[in-house]
Amino acid sequence: MTTISLQLQLLTEDDLPQVLELDQACFGGLWSKDGYLREMASPNSTLLILPLPNDGDRLMGLGCLWSIVEEAHVTIMAVHPDFQGQGLGQLILLGLLRDAWLRGLERATLEVRESNTAAIALYEKFGFQVAGKRKGYYQTTGEDALIMWRKGINEQKFPEQLNKWEKMVGDRLRQNSWRFQSEYNRE
Hints:
It contains 5 helices and 9 strands. The chain is α+β, with helices and mostly antiparallel strands. A hairpin with a 2-residue loop joins strand 3 (45-52) and strand 4.
């Protein structure tokens, strides 16, 4: 069985058509091209993409965080429906948490649909805990969002935790004939 190598990358302008297609497939067009351009221009944002190997015209996933004072706010986590359930969300979240640690941030937060049990399970696997609820947060459905927090990103033992997660993610990806490079180019 052939194993295919994956690598998280920073979003570039060349990737915008594929990102907009992924955004449409996962969120129905949550962010516009201008929205993504603003995020790319901000030194406080990290936008990671997961290209489909051997097909530069498709993305399997996307993640974004905002660095706000000492906090990483995860704003987008998306895995294309064709690739869900293969550990790719774990890889993207690992990349975002590694970035938060490299930025020296203390904690991470996000909102997730109360009904999105798969995403909630993913976040819990990485130490996020429910801290509250935003009533009617999702305008299209009126659904509530859970507010989840992950503390301790700036603690001395966090790199050890990152290494454990990296092994867990690697094991999960191998089950689907994927492998990954743990670093991405920050240039």
